[in-house]
Design goal:
single chain, Arc Repressor Mutant, subunit A, 3-stranded antiparallel beta sheet, 46% helix, 321 residues, WH_DNA-bd_sf, 14 helices, mainly alpha
Length: 321
């Protein structure tokens, strides 16, 4: 009885430290001022038997870690088989464990394993998760944990499937935001008093979009309810760079500007012609711009106007082979 009281005292003192702390035998000797190792191990065994303490292997050494009272209550309500399965699931953390691996580690019959899993799942101690890497496997993890990115595939996957619609919508939003930070009048409604020569910022402009501004914009306007990291936004920007829609500002890191070609592809300039609001000078500028695009070898979106004599056009089909 005295040993149980001493064990409870040791448990209380251990709980005063952070929950993740691992105690060695020497730590417990100092904590309890107990030089008798046999008596000290009696305290630890009492706590282990009551599911209040667990052994953790660190390299070749063993450490002791306290178990919270709520977790203790949970463990003591389980059968021995359920406890063993729960312990293996807990050990794998956010990675989860495959039922086949669980069966091999516990050396239990398949029927017993599945029965225990079902009971633990009904009590919301564990949950079944889907893995992007192994979609056909049944993988379990603790109910209160969130799967790691390696398991879920990150924010780009929904129900283990790549959510291309979500990705495309975010790419569009990010490109529009960067474009507006690059070309101030690019997507405004056509106005007769709009100076299209002012659509580009001066060379010394420093207010281009960076990752923080993009992230703030997405959060402020509640573009998505999925938590995105800075690395996720950077990945999307890299896709836009690959698609020639944006580019890094020279001499900077994670600062972007839209390409003029991507804005032209989106229709900037043409809406002014169609709306009939351009004055003669601006109209000449847009027409000259369109004419220039016809002879740009690096313009993948240029077309040949109907007015051009086809006999005067050289087709370089052989270059594309």
């Amino acid at each position: 009885m005295a040993d149980t009281a001493k064990a409870d005292l040791m448990y209380g003192r251990m709980c005063e430290s952070p929950a993740a702390k691992l105690f060695s035998q020497d730590d417990l000797k100092l904590l309890m001022n107990e030089p008798d190792l046999v008596r000290l191990l009696g305290y630890t065994q009492s706590l282990i038997d009551r599911k209040m303490l667990k052994l953790v292997k660190v390299g070749d050494d063993l450490r002791f870690q306290v178990i919270s009272l709520s977790e203790t209550k949970k463990l003591t309500s389980m059968s021995d088989d359920e406890q063993m399965i729960y312990t293996y699931i807990e050990a794998l953390g956010r990675e989860g464990i495959w039922t086949k691996t669980l069966k091999a580690k516990t050396n239990m019959h398949q029927h017993i394993v599945m029965r225990c899993l079902k009971l633990l799942e009904l009590q919301r101690y564990i949950k079944l998760i889907k893995s992007v890497k192994h979609p056909t496997r049944k993988i379990y993890m603790l109910y209160n944990l969130q799967p790691s990115i390696d398991v879920t595939g990150g924010p780009w996957f929904t129900d283990s499937e790549l959510d291309t619609e979500f990705i495309d919508s975010l790419l569009t939003v990010i490109w529009l935001f960067i474009s507006l930070k690059t070309f101030p009048t690019a997507f405004q409604e056509p106005q007769a008093n709009t100076n299209i020569f002012g659509s580009v910022y001066p060379a010394h402009h420093t207010g281009f979009a960076n990752l923080d501004l993009i992230m703030d914009f997405i959060i402020l306007h509640k573009i998505t309810n999925i938590d995105l990291a800075t690395s996720d936004i950077r990945s999307l920007c890299e896709v836009l760079i690959f698609d020639d829609k944006i580019e890094l500002v020279q001499g900077t890191f994670d600062v972007y500007k839209a390409t003029w070609q991507s804005v032209l592809e989106a229709g900037y300039g043409r809406q002014y012609n169609e709306a009939g609001v351009l004055n003669e000078l601006q109209k000449a500028f847009v027409q000259d711009l369109n004419a220039t695009r016809q002879f740009d070898l690096f313009d993948h979106y240029g077309v040949i106007n109907d007015e051009v004599n086809k006999d005067d056009v050289a087709y370089l089909d052989a270059w594309a082979i």
